[in-house]
Amino acid sequence: MDVHTRLMKKSYKSVRSWWFIALLIPTIACQHYNESLQLPWWGVLLACGVALFFTLPIGIITATTNQVDNPESPKILIDFAHLYEE
């Protein structure tokens, strides 16, 4: 376990799972506002899927490089993908 993880475990309590469920319920409830979203149901699920897919890699890049709100993050992900292809 690295130093950062040990410090975080000492300083902060872990988040309880009910908190994630409490956030999930209003998110699903937003699907009932289909007219205001102007998206079909599969568009909302696709948008959530894309967001979930990119959250972890961009979070890792942000944590390791200390660059927050970097517009170059998608380009960095593409560069990493090319490294694994070779």
TrEMBL record:
Q: Which UniProt keywords apply?
A: Membrane, Peptide transport, Protein transport, Transmembrane, Transmembrane helix, Transport
Q: Membrane-crossing residues?
A: 39-61
- Name the domain of life this protein comes from: Eukaryota
Whether Transmembrane helix counts among this entry's keywords is yes
Q: Which GO terms describe its molecular function?
A: oligopeptide transmembrane transporter activity
Predominant location of this chain?
Answer: membrane
Compartments annotated for it: namely: Membrane
Alphabetical list of Pfam families matching this protein:
OPT
- Record GO cellular component, one term: membrane
GO process annotations (BP): protein transport
**What is the membrane topology here?**
Multi-pass membrane protein
By sequence similarity, the record places it as follows:
Belongs to the oligopeptide OPT transporter (TC 2.A.67.1) family.
Name the UniProt record assigns to this protein: Uncharacterized protein
